[in-house]
Specification:
α2 runs antiparallel to α7. This protein is globular. By secondary structure, the chain is mainly α. The termini are far apart. The chain is built from 7 helices and no strands.
């Protein structure tokens, strides 16, 4: 049980680390257009992210896939930007299923990219064979899922308060938050080490 808690906590801290706010930014970008009544869709999106993240870690641990760290660090804010732009241009449009596949794909892609970004660190904290890393990886994935649900819940609460107390429309809230995220992410892209060749 203590080993479970160790890797579960690593997963929690991985998402909630204030210095690695890209993960939280993506979750905000993903959640902003939704309300509490959309919890099933949000849960599916968050779970798709975790599946992508875990899949990338498994592939990396077994040496199936290797990627340039600078490329991965560049792609992470790109996926956040795409998600925020998508919600910026679709804010206020009543399209329950339109573009659902695109959002699911981007979420899975972000999970894979972010998992690759974390894979080197994950391999250094775990010794032994690739097979012996599977159980800790599952425990870590549960920590990630729990932390993501906490972030999503907080975003939904803030969204509810802004829309009911401060009378923001759902569309305006999505526009403001998407624009804010774009403003935060663009400098991350510009400052990426990938441009230094």
């Amino acid at each position: 049980m203590s080993q479970f808690w160790i890797y579960f906590q690593i997963g929690l801290k991985h998402v909630l680390d204030i210095n690695a706010y890209d993960h939280v930014l993506f979750l905000i970008a993903l959640t902003v257009p939704y309300l509490f009544k959309d919890w099933k869709r949000i849960f599916v999106l968050v779970s798709i992210f975790t599946i992508g993240h875990t899949l990338a870690l498994i592939l990396s641990v077994f040496g199936v896939i290797k990627m340039n760290v600078n490329l991965v660090e560049f792609l992470i804010p790109i996926t956040i930007l795409i998600t925020a732009l998508y919600h910026l241009f679709t804010a206020g449009k009543n399209s329950k299923n339109d573009g659902a596949n695109l959002v699911f794909f981007i979420t899975l892609f972000f999970g894979i990219i972010h998992g690759l970004g974390f894979s080197n660190y994950f391999k250094t904290i775990l010794g032994g064979s690739a097979t012996s890393k599977l159980l800790p990886l599952g425990e870590f994935a549960l920590g990630i899922e729990a932390a993501q649900l906490v972030v999503v819940f907080v975003v939904l609460v803030i969204s509810y308060i802004v829309q009911t107390v401060f009378r923001f429309s759902k569309r305006d809230w999505a526009l403001v938050m998407s624009a804010f995220i774009i403003g935060v992410v663009i400098p991350m892209i510009i400052e990426s080490p990938i441009w230094n060749r």
